[in-house]
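Lecture notes, structural biology module. Today: joint structure prediction for complexes of two components.
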Amino acid sequence: MGATGDDVGDTQEAIMHATYRALCKHGYANLTMQTIADEFDKTKGVIHYHYDTKEDLLVAFLEYLLESFEQSLAAIEGETPLERLEAFVDALLFGPPDRGQFDHWELTIALLEVRSEAPYNAEFRRQLSRNYETIEATVVAIVEDGIEQGQFRQNVDPEQVAVLLMTTINGARMYQVSLDRDDVADIVRTALEAVVREWLCADAPTDE
Amino acid sequence: MGATGDDVGDTQEAIMHATYRALCKHGYANLTMQTIADEFDKTKGVIHYHYDTKEDLLVAFLEYLLESFEQSLAAIEGETPLERLEAFVDALLFGPPDRGQFDHWELTIALLEVRSEAPYNAEFRRQLSRNYETIEATVVAIVEDGIEQGQFRQNVDPEQVAVLLMTTINGARMYQVSLDRDDVADIVRTALEAVVREWLCADAPTDE
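The predicted structure, tokenised, for the full assembly:
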């Protein structure tokens, strides 16, 4: 094809954006290679050249999202572990500060679509699990750092904290897009601040 | 039709069970009136007599689940608000003690399917919101009771507690069926016990 590595990268990036738009517009149940091609400025053949099936394409899309998210983690700032943890919670709950290209709530709907297929699709589960483990490891590292620096209690279990924060944020994002109320994420953010302060922080009194 | 009220109730209950089995087996994307009829011992005409569309049927299914869940709440026991709250968390996370007819994780997958359609479907959002509000009100009442009895802190916001618990449980159930790990619900249960103890209980020391 005579394409350079950069060209391939650009084409794949364009296909990822087309996939995102098609998924937002039609939902998983009505997503086809054609509806993805309709959002793409080259032919369907170009998509098939890069991805054999819709499933391959969606697994690549999940991987692309994970990489984008990992890059955006670099933009998360905070002098202390607590500040970094709070910035991380905000990035997961409301979208990373420099995400730019994706609307956070549209993306949440698209991910909910893929997630609802995961019980039937081992490849989706595998990629969603990889995304989950990568983000969990980042939260665990922040909590371990906080324990080592004495900002967090010695007796908290970093994995337990990470699982709790991630499940709560995941649940809030799912509710936010599937219920007729738009205050769930804000209430959860306030509640998690209180939980982190009371459960995690070493300066909160403890009876142990 | 000469059907008594009881007959109608029995038929509708049988249709609800057929809907559940079809949803578990085929997923939302492949669910049709025919796949539901295949799980039902009467004709498709009987289903159409009761429900005009697949959407009507699924809204009725959500309503049926809510009623079943409300009935199972009666089986939740606990002498104190804390015991009732913990029993309620367990019922939401692992299924109510007397649910009998539905497998909790199959039901979670079926609900995830319906939830993933909700962003595109106002009727699903309306019924999911009704389910959510009903269960939230129950949690709020337990927390208010605990504050009044002095078991929970005076300064916790019952709605905030309810939203946090429900989003966390929702997130855990979604992860449990869509990731390649089966320990999320157990870890969340342990973490929520710690959170309730540290954040909610009045006998935990407070700095206010």
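Point to remember: The domain at 78-200 of chain A is CATH 1.10.357.10 (Tetracycline Repressor; domain 2).
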